[in-house]
Structures are given as C-alpha cells and as structure tokens.
Specification:
127 residues; alpha+beta; two-stranded antiparallel sheet
Length: 127
C-alpha cells in the first residue's frame, strides 16, 4: 500500500477550511500556541482578539478545531502545522482553519460541524 492508500484506509488527511463570515472583522488575528491547561488566546489585532477572548467556550472550540496531531495510535500519527486565523475582508470576514480528521466511534470525521460552530461563535462575538 502506498502512503495515500494508507491515509485513505485510516481516513486521515490534511483538511483546510475557509468559511466566510457575515460580520465585519476589525483586524486580523491568529490563534496562538497551545498552552497546557488553558485555551489558547488569539493574537494580532487587539480589538478582534479582545472580543473573541471574552468567550471562553469559543477559545476551547478553536483549540479543538485546530487539531495538529491525529492517528489511530502513537506509532501511526499525522502532524500538521497549526493554522487558525480570522481575516478581515471588504464583505465581512474569513475564518481559515487547517486541521486533521478526528477518530470517532463510527469511523473518521472531518470535523466540519465543529468548524461551522466555531464560525457561528466568532460571528456572535464580533457581531
């Protein structure tokens, strides 16, 4: 089996999401590095980071969405660099997220529901 076939059989692979936001974004922010025991903070534009940081559930969800390691066991793991940003655009904002499939009881999930839930929370925080 090739690397691609193995990834398909495990259901793993790099996922990148771009979700348009229907609210204005004051300035660009990116989710900072993971911290043990605490959700990460957004860094960049102070006003955007402050407003997003007021919702601890949003920060926890952002950490969960931006998974960087996945695999069926410690020997077979895939890693990606962390990317979760909120960018301003002329017609609203844009959520960009890079992640990996997540293992669930029914198989592997791309986690799209969590990404869309995060986009909704970001819109609520910035709206």
């Amino acid at each position: 089996m090739t690397g691609r076939a193995i990834r398909r059989s495990f259901g793993l692979g790099l996922l990148q999401y771009a979700v348009p936001l229907g609210v204005p974004v004051p300035g660009p922010v990116a989710l900072g590095e993971r911290r043990r025991g605490h959700p990460s903070d957004f860094q960049g534009d102070q006003e955007t980071a402050r407003r997003l940081g007021l919702d601890p559930g949003l920060l926890t969800l952002a950490d969960r969405v931006s998974a960087t390691v996945a695999g069926p066991d410690p020997t077979h793991q895939w890693n990606v660099d962390r990317l979760l940003t909120v960018q301003p655009r002329s017609d609203g904002g844009l959520l960009l997220a890079r992640t990996l499939h997540r293992q669930t009881a029914g198989g592997w999930s791309p986690g799209a529901e969590a990404v869309l839930a995060l986009a909704a929370r970001i819109e609520s925080a910035l709206g």
